[in-house]
Structure formats: C-alpha cells, structure tokens
Amino acid sequence: MLIGELSRRTGVHAHQLRYYEAQGLLEPDRGANGYREYADDAVLTVTQIRRLLEAGLSTQEIAFLLPCATGTAPVLEPCPELLTTLRTRLRGLDDHIDTLVRSRQVLNDYIDATERLMPRQYQDCAPATPQPAPAR
Q1: Does 1-77 carry CATH code 3.30.1490.100?
Q2: What is the arithmetic mean of pLDDT over 81-107?
Q3: In the Cβ-directed half-sphere of 1, how many Cα atoms lie within 13 Å?
Q4: Number of other CB atoms surrounding residue 25 within 10 Å
Q5: pLDDT-based confidence at 122, cuts 50/70/90?
Q6: Which of 61, 69, 80, 118 is least crowded, fewest Cβ atoms below 10 Å from its Cβ?
Q7: Which of 25-34, 53-62, 76-85, 125-134 is least confident?
Q8: Is pTM beyond 0.85 here?
C-alpha cells in the first residue's frame, strides 16, 4: 500500500509516517517509481508506535522496544533490557511530575501571598483565573 492508504488506515498523517521512517521505526519498500510501498503489517506497526508514544516513550526508546512488540496493545516480550528501559522512562516521568507539583505549589504560594497584600476593595475585582496578557 502507498503512504496515503497507510495514512487513511491508521489515521496518522503522511508526514508523521515519513518521520517514523526517518527514525527507523518503519521500513517501506520502494516501487520502481520511487514511491514508498508498505506491507499490510505496517498498519499494526504504526498502531504499536502510536501506543508506545502515548506511554511517553521517545522514538529512540520505541526503536529499541518495537522488535519486542506483539499485537495492537502492544504486548512486549519480557527481557531485562526492556524492563530497564521502561523503568528508566517511568522514573523520568515521575521526576517530571514531582517538579510540576512543586512548581504548582510555589506558584499557588505566590498567588496567596499577593492576594493577602491586596487592599480589600480590590480583592473582589481580581479575576479567579489568570488572564492572558493583551496582544501588542
């Protein structure tokens, strides 16, 4: 199938499919006319790539894990290197979440401290949610 058909069948834009190819995640054949030609199993591969991306994995990590993937979920065949990669990525996500939670708390502290310093007559006028700065 050509790239347009793979795009229609997977709901993934052609430019993303070309990116997956550049990252070594998809390997189409080339027709005599130079067009990319994908085997039917490319639909499954793209589905697996999308699911692994949803898990927060990078394309480098996916390139490492993809040969271990089976099915649309995908299911990953267990091996120590695979689990190490997944656990490392999970720790990175947990660290990022912790940083965001701390940043959120500090920002809330700034808001609370600033609101306490506002004169009483202006507190009722303050917007409940931050408003974007006006365009210049």
Answers
A1: no
A2: 94
A3: 15
A4: 20
A5: low
A6: 80
A7: 125-134
A8: no
For position 129, what pLDDT does the model report? 60
Distance CA 94, CA 120 (A): 40
Residues 6+ apart with CB under 8 A from 31: 37
CA distance 89 to 93: 6
For the chain, the domains span 1-77, 78-119
Segment 59-80, tens digit of pLDDT: 999 999 999 988 888 888 888 7
Q: Which residues contact 76 (CB under 8 A, 6 or more apart)?
A: 65, 68, 69, 70, 82, 86
Residues 6 or more apart from 4 whose CB is under 8 A from it? 14
Q: Which of 41, 56, 31, 55 is nearest to 10 (CA)?
A: 41
Total residues belonging to the chain? 136
Query: Which of left, alpha, beta for 34 (phi over 0: left; psi -120 to 50: alpha)?
Result: left
